[in-house]
Specification:
This protein has about 725 residues and is α+β, with helices and mostly antiparallel strands. Helices cover about 20% and strands about 35% of the residues. The strands form eleven sheets. Strands 18, 19, 20, 21 and 22 form a five-stranded antiparallel β-sheet that branches.
Length: about 725
């Protein structure tokens, strides 16, 4: 009986709790959960994008590098020796050794057919690679390879052979496709007012602007959020803008900045264009699967038009960290030098080179030839104790610096080597050398060596300069030593168009700036032009056209900027951009931008100045990362056209001055119109509030009376005060 009573009481309590819950719970609306069975719901497939496609996934994931088991991965190598079974394995091993250096050959991916009757090979082989890209590279690099005097490789993709065999016997006329207009990559060069563009990157935004100093502002061209995952970079001639993503890199261009090409390279970190914009080099590194080994590095050289990888360099990251000199051991070099591959300038992207080590650990220069991407003459440039090399900016000529031998028998040496002949056209031995810094003139006419030498005691060092006149016959050389040889050299800079250079030297916080010229009248000797003493300077920034120079004290010197005219040896203006980190001239040399990047937490943004030092406009942006002027394509008008422009400069100036005045007037009209619109908006706002107040006036007055507040009329007094001010005082002597 007691159990029955307890059970009955529990049931009643359960009903009360259900009743209370039902009473307290609000009425359910929306989805009819009653009678709903979750198992009957058909969920969308995991590959469904729910109607919101990701652009990056659309670009890369759909065409990510895949293992292709078809004919595209197989290379047919023809013109092989016809041999018997006894030499089959030996030839197979030779082929595997050759092609394994180019790409990843599948296990059992090498096959040479054998004639069943003669028991000899048929003179060709099939080689299967891991993916189509490696097969294409192998086809290009192995084509024309000389196995011996009688056998030269002839390579084709098996896919190409199959396509040829499937060609129909009857000709079928191809269908005409509709014309699709492509973006003009040079449209920005056709601006009627000759303006320049620049790119800025801040927070998650990347923006392109016209520099419009005549109106005191910039004009928006294009903007996009999350356009890149790390940084952006203009191509050398300004036709394209590159963005970097986890899956690879992309290049954009045209009026609407549409995508031109994409380059698949997982976890890419750095990119570099060839000077003539034919190729793109990309770099990535990642941890090795083997914990005992260091990080692995991948360098891809890709064709810009097709996006195909033409050659890939892979290996341990330490193998690419090459610092010259025989005292350096492999793997202990330090940081990776970028760009690793240095392009030969002014030679149609014909050669590129890098510093490498041979099997014995000695440094060498590996020069590669395009478009085959193979070693020039199939061998590297071997020289003792190579530390570094630098291409001339205008020709296939490199300056090679060799360190002194450890036993002291061989001094340091600098030589000029022509490519592809590898002939040495000039050399100079340097004694007691501590370090050498190479400075090529932008026109390639001069070469300066900043040489730091040890004193006789070997405990201290002093500085001097060695100059090569590369543009003159027999390349004469000169030596320049400062008055105080032991002073620190802070900076050296050539005038881009001219024969002058500037040196910042001194040990204190305010060093000196000295100017020299390579043309002293008919003597053709170095001449000292003058010295500026005690300047707050860390770097020098010449205008691209020469003549004008900015003497900048960046970062720790709080952004001191001195605008200097070297022709007149005169300071035009002194300004300050607090905590400035970068100084960038526009391609024309008319304007210069200074910026403060996110390395400082305050005052981020940029200022645009005229070459005279006048501030034109300032833009503040939080978390500011990059300011990049868009480069201009090189245009050679010829001496006759340049002389004509110089002759008629006054006539052109009048036209441009009239256009500038028109722009200023237009800007003034726009400002007046903007102010008028603001006044109109304020008047409308005030009128609307007055109407609202009239509607509630009676209620307001009633509330005032209830509060007991009494409004009193306040009287105002006006007092006029006269102030005398002396505008100017002029003293004149009266004639007697």
């Amino acid at each position: 009986a007691s159990v029955q009573r307890a059970t009955s009481t529990a049931r009643q309590g359960s009903r009360r709790s259900e009743y209370l819950c039902a009473a307290m719970e609000p009425e359910r609306t929306g989805w009819p959960w009653d009678g709903f069975n979750i198992e009957e719901v058909e969920l969308p497939d995991q590959s469904d994008d729910y109607g919101v496609p990701s652009e990056d996934e659309e670009d890369f994931n759909a065409e990510e590098i895949q293992k292709d088991e078809g004919f595209s991965c197989v290379v047919v190598v023809d013109n092989l020796p016809v041999i018997g079974i006894e030499k089959y394995e030996k030839l197979l091993g030779v082929l595997k050794k050759i092609f394994s250096q180019i790409g990843e050959v599948h296990e059992d991916g090498l096959y040479m057919p054998v004639d069943e009757q003669t028991k000899k090979t048929k003179g060709f082989a099939f080689i299967e690679f891991a993916n189509p890209d490696q097969a294409k590279i192998a086809r290009q690099q192995a084509e024309g390879y000389k196995l011996d005097k009688s056998h030269t490789f002839k390579c084709n993709l098996l896919k190409e052979v199959e396509d040829l065999s499937a060609t129909p016997e009857e000709y079928k006329e191809p269908e005409l496709k509709d014309f699709v207009r492509k973006d003009n990559l040079y449209s920005w060069m056709l601006d009627a007012r000759g303006r320049d563009q620049f790119a800025v990157r801040y927070q998650d935004m990347t923006e392109i602007h016209w520099n419009d100093p005549k109106t005191g502002t910039s004009e928006d061209v294009y903007s996009r959020s999350f356009w890149t995952e790390s940084y952006v970079q203009w191509s050398p001639q300004g036709t394209m803008l590159a963005t970097v993503h986890r899956q690879g890199a992309q290049v954009w261009g045209g009026e609407e900045f549409s995508r031109i090409q994409r380059f698949g390279h997982s976890k890419v970190q750095l990119i570099d264009f060839s000077p003539c914009e034919k190729y793109l080099v990309s770099y990535s590194s990642q941890e090795s699967p083997n914990p005992r080994e260091g990080p692995m590095a991948v360098f891809n050289v890709s064709d810009l038009k097709s996006g195909q990888t033409l050659r890939s360099f892979k290996g341990k990251l330490s193998d690419f960290m090459v610092a010259g000199g025989e005292h350096k051991a492999p793997g202990v070099e330090g940081a990776l030098q970028w760009p690793l591959f240095k392009w030969c300038q002014g030679n149609d992207d014909k050669y590129f080179a890098r510093l490498a080590r041979n099997k014995s650990g000695k440094t060498m220069i590996s020069v590669y030839e395009t478009p085959e991407m193979g070693l020039l003459e199939k061998k590297s440039l071997q020289m003792e104790n190579i530390v570094d090399f630098h291409w001339s900016p205008t020709q296939a000529l490199m300056c090679v610096y060799q360190a002194a031998s450890s036993d002291g028998n061989q001094p340091a040496r600098v030589s000029l080597v022509e490519i592809p002949s590898r002939s040495e056209i000039k050399s100079k031995n340097l004694f007691s050398v501590k370090d050498v810094t190479v400075h090529w003139h932008p026109d390639g006419t001069y070469l300066a060596l900043q040489v730091s030498r040890f004193t006789k005691s070997g405990k201290t060092s002093y500085n001097g300069f060695e100059f090569f006149r590369v543009g003159e016959r027999n390349i004469p050389m000169e030596v320049l030593e400062l008055e105080k040889k032991q002073e620190k050299i802070v900076s050296f800079a050539w005038e881009p168009k001219g024969h002058r250079f500037a040196i910042v030297h001194g040990d204190g916080a305010r060093p000196d700036v000295s100017f020299y010229t390579m043309q002293d009248g008919q003597k053709g000797q170095i001449k000292h032009l003058g010295t500026l003493h005690g300047r707050p300077v860390t770097s020098l920034h010449w205008s691209p056209q020469g003549k004008f120079l900015i003497i900048a004290g960046l970062k720790g010197l709080n952004g001191q900027l001195e605008f200097f005219n070297v022709n007149d040896m005169d300071t035009m203006a002194i300004n300050e951009h607090f905590m400035c980190t970068n100084v960038d001239w526009d391609p024309t040399g008319r304007y210069v931008a200074t910026s403060v990047t996110s390395v400082h937490q305050m005052e981020n943004g940029y200022i645009v100045w005229s070459f005279l030092g006048q501030q034109l406009y300032k833009v503040n942006r939080d978390r500011f990362f990059q300011f990049l002027w868009r480069p201009r394509m090189p245009l050679d008008l010829g001496k006759d056209k340049e002389n004509e422009i110089q002759k008629n400069l006054k006539k052109y100036s009048k036209r441009f001055e009239a256009e500038d005045e028109s722009l200023k007037s237009q800007a003034d009209v726009e400002k007046m119109e903007e102010r008028k619109n603001m006044e109109t908006e304020w008047a409308d706002f005030l009128e609307s509030k007055k109407k609202v107040f009239e509607e509630i006036r009676e209620e307001h007055e009633a509330l005032v009376r209830l509060s007991g507040y009494v409004e009193s009329e306040q009287s105002a007094q006006t007092e006029e005060i006269e102030v005398e001010e002396v505008v100017s005082v002029k003293e004149e002597k009266m004639p007697r």
